[in-house]
Structure formats: C-alpha cells, structure tokens
Design goal:
Elements (H helix, E strand, L loop, with lengths): L8 H19 L4 E2 L1 H8 L3 H9 L11 E2 H11 L6 E6 L3 H7 L3 H4 L2 E8 L8 E2 L2 E5 L3 H8 L3 E4 L3 H13 L4 E4 L12 E4 L2 H16 L3
Parallel strand pairs: 3-4, 3-7, 4-6, 7-8, 8-9
Antiparallel strand pairs: 1-2, 5-6
Length: about 210
C-alpha cells in the first residue's frame, strides 16, 4: 500500500460507499465481482474503481475479479472497522439522543460510552444504555474509559471552548455537528457535519432542475 499521505480525500470519501455496496453483495451471497459489474452497481467507472483499489494493493486477480468477502474485509480494515472505537456525545438534545439510539453504530464497532450535557435538568436522564452526565465529569470520564472520538451536538457558541477541553483531555477525533469551525491542533481529526448545508445543496438541485422543461 502506498503512503497514506498520498491517498486523496476523494478516494477516502469513496471507501465507505465501497464498503456499503460490498456488504450488500456479501449479504446476497455474491462471492466475486468484476470492476465492470461493481461500477454498474455504484454508477462509477471500472477504471476509477481499479485505480482506487490499486492504491491499497489491488485486491483483484486477472480474469477472476474481486473476492467480495475479502474485499469487504480489507476495506473495513482500511477504514479502521476491524477494531472498536469508544465515543462520547456532548449534547443530550434531540440530535444527541437520536445518535445514541441508532443501533447501527454499534454494529460497525462505534460504541457510545457516555453522554454529557450542561443542562442540570437533563442530568440523570436515561438515553439508550447511558445516563446523561454533567460536564464537570467529562474529563475524568475520558481518562477512565479510553475514549477515542467525541461527538459534538451542541450550539455553535459552546463548540469551540468544549473542543479545547476535549483536546486537552486527550481526545484525538471529533465528529462535529455544531455550526462552528474548530481551531484544533494539527493531528486532531475533525469531521464536520453541517446538516443545513446538505439540505441547501438539495434545495439548489431541486430549484435548478424544476426550471428545466
């Protein structure tokens, strides 16, 4: 496999999609597939798929194609899904509760260990298998539970100071649903999810297509 630093973000963004489609094929009992057939399913090109996979060693055999189960397992490994990740949620509002209750995260190895909120009225509330804890307990909880990833579902005004607390506590990755750019040090991974941005892109597509006859 080439140096991971040379893997473009576009390729990395495609890996979860490969993983999802291959999982569906595996569940259907498909044992092998060619890049051409996979490209038809994914609405991509066979050459793009081969180029992507070659960055990680190829995985295929001339005249055979790809072993679906092996390729699914290998892409899962590349994505880090061969190990468990321990997460906490900061913000026990509707979004935080919805994420905590989504069972498919645990099926992929993303285990929610705790949920925190600054609102005293929410303290002790049961969310999934967890009870909402006060923010004062956050740092000790991270230290005691080997937390990898923090999920921010809090208002924009609180996101930056909370992210600084998380970094100081040893968190290495943040899944950020707050509408704020987080000034974290190099080496801290941040994945921003702006739901309204996605909806506005969809609105643009609807608006432009509706004007066409």
């Amino acid at each position: 496999m080439q140096d991971e630093q040379k893997i473009s973000q576009a390729v990395i963004d495609r890996l979860p999609r490969y993983f999802r489609y291959l999982g569906e094929l595996r569940d259907q009992g498909v044992e092998r597939i060619s890049s051409r057939d996979l490209s038809a399913i994914m609405h991509s090109t066979a050459s793009q798929i081969r180029q992507d996979f070659n960055l990680f060693g190829g995985f295929g055999q001339q005249g055979y194609g790809y072993n679906v189960d092996h390729l699914y397992t290998e892409i899962g490994r590349i994505l880090g899904l061969d190990k468990e990740h321990h997460l906490i949620i900061i913000g026990a509002g509707h979004l935080g509760q919805a994420l905590a209750n989504y069972s498919n995260f645990a099926n992929r190895g993303f285990i929610f260990e705790g949920i925190f909120d600054s609102d005293p009225a929410l303290s002790g509330k049961q969310v999934a298998h967890m009870k909402v804890q006060p923010m004062e307990d956050l740092v000790d909880f991270i230290a005691q539970n080997d937390i990898d990833i923090a999920v921010l579902t809090i208002p924009k005004t609180a996101a930056v100071p909370v992210s600084q607390v998380l970094v100081d506590a040893g968190i290495k990755a943040i899944w950020n649903f707050a509408h704020a750019d987080l000034p974290v040090p190099e080496g801290i991974q941040v994945e921003n999810v702006h739901l309204t941005d996605s909806l506005m892109r969809l609105s643009y597509s609807v608006s432009t297509s509706s004007g066409k006859e």
